[in-house]
Amino acid sequence: MAPAEVKALLFDVFGTTVDWRSGVTRAGEELERRKGEDLRGVDWAAFADAWRAEYRPSMDRVMRGEIPWTNLDGLHRASLEALLRRFGISELSEEEKEFLVCAWHRLDPWPDVVEGLRRLRRRYIVAPLSNGNVALLTDMARRAGLPWDLILSAEWVRRYKPDPATYLLLPRLFSLRPGQAMMVAAHPDDLHGARRAGLRTAFVPRPLEFGPGGPTQPAEGPFDVVAEDFVELAERLGA
C-alpha cells in the first residue's frame, strides 16, 4: 500500500499509459492506403519499433549538449528522416511526414487506463510526467479522454528523464516533499530515477508494449507498489 502521505501520482506515458506501437503502426498503414503502390511491403510494426529505438539516443544527445534543447516532436521529426532512408521510403511530402510525426499525438490508452485514472483522481492529483512535449500530451489527452489534473512535461524544465529536475517538478509546483509524490511506470529505469529523486514508485507492467512475443520489462524493484494495471493500482491505493 502507498504511504499515507502520498498526495500525487505521476504517470509515465509512452508504453505505460498509451500503446505507442499500435498507434504508430496504424498511422503507417493509413499512409500506405493513401499512397498505394509506393509504400507496399513496408513493415510498419518494425518501423514503429525502430522509431521508438531512436527515442533514448536522441534525448541523450540533447542531455550531453551535442544538440540544443529540442522537444520530442522535434526529435521525432529528425529521427524520421533517417528511418525513411533505412526503410527505403521516398517521395513523402512534408504534410505526409507531419502526419507520421503526429501519430505520436494520436495514441490510444490501454483498456484499463481511463477507468483507473478516474478512480485515482478522486483521491490523488494525477498528471503525466513524460518526456513528451506539452502540445503532444495535450492533444493525446483530449483525443483519448485522459482525465489529468494538469500536464507535466520534461519540456517545462528542459531536462529529459531521468534527470532529477523532471521528477521534482510536481513537488516543487505544489510545495510537496518528494516522498509525497509517486511515479507510476512500466519501465524500471524510470522508477529507479524517480526513487533516486526521493519519490515513491509503482510498477505497472505492460507485457504487450512491444507487441505479442515482444520483450517485457521485469519487475526489478524495490518498488512501493506493484499492480497489474491502473484499476488494480486504484484498488491498492484505496481509490
From TrEMBL:
Highest taxon, organism lineage: Bacteria
GO MF entries: hydrolase activity, acting on acid halide bonds, in C-halide compounds
Pfam families tied to this protein: Hydrolase
InterPro entries in the cross-refs: 2-HAD, HAD-like_sf, HAD-SF_hydro_IA, HAD_sf, PGP-like_dom2, S-2-haloacid_dehalogenase
Keywords: Hydrolase
Signal peptide: none
CDD domains recorded: HAD_L2-DEX (cd02588)
Family: Belongs to the HAD-like hydrolase superfamily. S-2-haloalkanoic acid dehalogenase family.
Protein name, as recorded: Dehalogenase
